[in-house]
Design a protein that fits this description.
mainly alpha, ABC transporter involved in vitamin B12 uptake, BtuC, globular
């Protein structure tokens, strides 16, 4: 363990994983409480179009994917509110569009497309110093947003209609949180990849939801579970020589299974 910490790539992977886990824990709580899990999946797969375009243009795929993700998030919000299109319908369109564009752009890219497995399945060991600064900036921005606007975010997450009655800036909160959701999703691609990313912003939250429904406590435990799952998954996967992203999700699912079993045992009533 101590030997691993001497390597810069492992230090980056560990620190990056912790920062991304914090962001996913915070944003994921809003996603689960607002029932936006399907939207997060749509944004994740829509960003694949940005990755394909980035590869085709020879530029940074993550930057283009970030633009695609934000456009998709705002597009779903706009279509569902302004044009009364059902959210699931809007998500299905953007989901399919993103995947189709990604496949077409990759097909049109001259030569072999290398490194695509990192975007599909993740490779936490490729996290760079620049990525660390981006992750840290995202976490700081989230802390500021949740500190300054905690109560409006809470009301919008649980009941947007009631938040409107209270004259809260519902539209601003919704678009701001969609921005954070899209950004967190794209930044997390390096960690677990597009295929498994939706699990990272939902499994810690549904695990925390087994024991508390308080938004603040749920967010705290979600962050804790995500960090524990990421760090332990990274370490064990390194020694077992298996893909880190997939193993992190496997660890999180195991934590959920153990937590669910523990809750059943604690709630089990003695026979009369």
């Amino acid at each position: 363990m101590l030997e691993l910490l001497k390597y810069a790539f492992f230090q980056h992977a560990l620190l990056g994983g912790i920062l991304v886990s914090i962001a996913c824990g915070m944003v994921g709580t809003y996603i689960v409480m607002r029932r936006l899990v399907f939207i997060s999946g749509g944004i994740t797969h829509a960003s694949f179009g940005g990755i394909g375009l980035g590869v085709f243009l020879g530029t940074n795929p993550i930057v283009v994917a970030w633009i695609f993700a934000i456009a998709s998030a705002f597009g779903v919000e706009y279509l569902s509110t302004k044009h009364k299109l059902r959210e699931d319908s809007a998500i299905a369109v953007l989901w399919a569009l993103g995947m189709a564009l990604g496949i077409i752009f990759l097909y049109l890219t001259p030569g072999y497309t290398i490194g695509m497995s990192e975007f599909l399945f993740g490779n936490i060991l490729t996290i760079s110093t620049a990525d660390i600064y981006l992750f840290a900036g995202l976490v700081v921005a989230l802390f500021i947003a949740f500190t300054v606007l905690y109560r409006p975010i809470l009301y919008v997450a649980f009941d947007p209609e009631y938040a409107r009655v209270l004259k809260l800036p519902v539209k601003f909160i919704e678009y701001m949180m969609m921005f954070f959701v899209a950004t967190t999703i794209v930044f997390s691609i390096r960690l677990v990849g597009i295929v498994l990313l939706m699990s990272l912003v939902t499994i810690p939250q549904i695990t925390a939801d087994l024991f508390t429904h308080d938004f603040r406590k749920m967010m705290f435990f979600s962050v804790l579970i995500a960090v524990v799952g990421c760090v332990s998954g990274l370490l064990i996967s390194y020694f077992l020589n298996v893909p880190s992203g997939a193993f992190i999700i496997l660890v999180l699912i195991s934590i959920y299974g153990l937590s669910w079993t523990l809750k059943i045992l604690l709630n089990k009533q003695p026979a009369k």
